[in-house]
Design brief:
This protein is an alpha+beta fold. The chain has 3 domains: 92 residues, Rossmann fold, CATH 3.40.50; 173 residues, ATP-grasp fold, B domain (D-amino Acid Aminotransferase, Chain A, domain 1); 53 residues, Dna Ligase, domain 1. It is 25% helix and 28% strand. A 5-stranded parallel beta sheet has the order 3-2-1-4-5, sandwiched between helices. A 4-stranded antiparallel beta sheet has the order 6-9-7-8, with helices on both faces. The longest helix has 13 residues. It is globular and about 65 Å long.
């Protein structure tokens, strides 16, 4: 009898695309969220409501699910529980597709990441703490939440007056960063348990909304492939990550953000043949896949659209609506 791996998706939310891709790769899917209206719950083979991430019983509830459902892989699909899972990764009873706590801390803290990139000779835009701003700044600059995600709390200042206003306006601990003026790219990477980069797939940012790419295209750019690989391995990433960078006029590739999860544009590298779900399942099975840098389809375009899921109350829970056939109404 062939054993089917069970994959647990935490903070599943709207990530129907990720849950469905792992199901297509041969996994039994178990999605959890604290919100019963999270759509991804209802496309999974199994689903469970959990406590909120900030509640004391959250990690224990995941451990119980791992044991009950014989989970072999835990895939966090949002940033919300990264730190808690990274700190508990050795005691979860299944492979957590995340790097260690030190790497997660770097990804969360944009100023610490900038200083790390400087030490590793990885290009990074000039960045300052608000308390250490130089007398002369290269406007335009960005006022960015030091610990933020989803492009929240980012303000562009073209003058010293605007900078002063946004520093006073923001409610978040912030940094000031020189604005990149070149072309923006994202690189979707996947690393194994030794932090070897298995693949890096660069794509254009044709259009984004709320910090998430909604239109883009995979491109043939060996320099970006190698850059994404170098950044991922320097940071000792494990599992998926999206690396955002710009190509500036001088040819440099400053990194502006690293998100250690499957990106919002996950359907694009998947359509381009990334096989990231299959590779992730192989890692959970104890295999050691060989790197396949540059192995993807070039020129694949993604354009996203809204969809929906109808649910109806059945007993104490919700289930997808089964549409009546013609003539049954």
């Amino acid at each position: 009898m062939i054993s089917v791996p069970v994959v647990l998706f935490t903070c599943a939310g709207q990530r129907v695309d990720i849950v469905s891709a792992f199901a297509a790769a041969g996994a039994t899917t178990l999605a959890v969220d604290c919100n019963e209206l999270a759509p991804a719950l209802y496309v999974a083979d199994r689903h469970v409501l959990t406590p909120r991430v900030d509640e004391p019983g959250y990690i224990d509830s995941l451990r119980e699910l791992v044991a009950e459902h014989e989970v072999s892989l835990i895939v966090p699909v949002a940033d919300l529980d990264h730190r808690a899972l990274a700190e508990a990764r050795e005691s979860m009873g299944a492979l957590v597709l995340l790097p260690g706590a030190d790497a997660i801390a770097l990804c969360e803290d944009k100023y610490a990441a900038h200083r790390f990139f400087e030490r590793e000779a990885i290009p990074s835009p000039p960045t300052w703490e608000v308390s250490e701003l130089p007398a002369t700044l290269p406007f335009p600059v960005l006022v960015k939440a030091r610990r933020g995600y989803g492009s929240r709390h980012i303000y562009r200042a073209a003058t010293a007056r605007e900078l002063e206003f946004f520093i006073a306006y923001t409610t978040q601990e912030s940094i000031v960063q020189s604005a990149c003026l070149g072309t923006e790219y994202s690189i979707d990477v996947l690393c194994d348990l030794e932090s070897r980069c298995l693949n890096a797939i660069p794509r254009t940012m044709i259009e984004s909304k709320g910090g998430e790419s909604i239109k883009g295209m995979t491109i043939d750019d060996r320099e970006l492939v190698e850059h994404g690989c170098a950044v991922a391995e320097a940071m000792k990433l494990i599992g998926p990550a999206t690396i955002q960078c710009f190509r500036e006029a001088d040819g440099s590739l400053p990194v502006t953000d690293v998100n250690p999860r499957f990106g919002g544009a996950f359907p694009l590298p998947t359509a381009a043949g990334s096989e990231y779900p299959e590779l992730s399942l192989a890692l959970a099975a104890g295999e050691r896949p060989e790197p396949r840098l540059g192995s993807y389809r070039v020129g694949v375009v993604m354009t996203r659209y809204f969809s929906q899921l109808g649910l109806e109350r059945v007993g104490d829970g919700l289930e997808p609506v089964i549409e009546a056939a013609a003539g049954e109404l």
